[in-house]
Design brief:
- The protein is an alpha/beta fold and 75 residues long.
- The protein has a single domain, classed as 3-Layer(aba) Sandwich (Rossmann fold).
- It has three helices and three strands; from the N terminus they run βαβαβα.
- The protein has a three-stranded parallel beta sheet with strand order 1-2-3, with helices on both faces.
Length: 75
């Protein structure tokens, strides 16, 4: 039995090689799994992430209260 994933939070700037390859793999394996991206605010990354199906994004540093809202919206 495979475990289910309710949501993924992903910091795209911590990924070194191809920042979006991991996101593409998530989309291929679990198309309906909501993904929230965290970044230092590079709009180009956020635009591309949205095209890959990211449901929300947050700018670092992350305020815990601001993180709770998108999680509640998708879970």
């Amino acid at each position: 039995m495979q475990p289910t994933i309710d949501m993924v939070s992903l910091s795209i700037l911590t990924l070194k090689k191809d920042r979006f390859e991991f996101l593409r793999k998530i989309r291929a394996a679990a198309r309906n799994t909501p993904v929230i991206v965290m970044t230092v605010g590079d709009v180009n990354y956020l635009d591309f992430a949205t095209q890959l199906g990211v449901v929300d994004s947050l700018a670092k540093p992350i305020d815990e209260q601001k993180l709770i809202v998108p999680i509640q919206n998708v879970v």
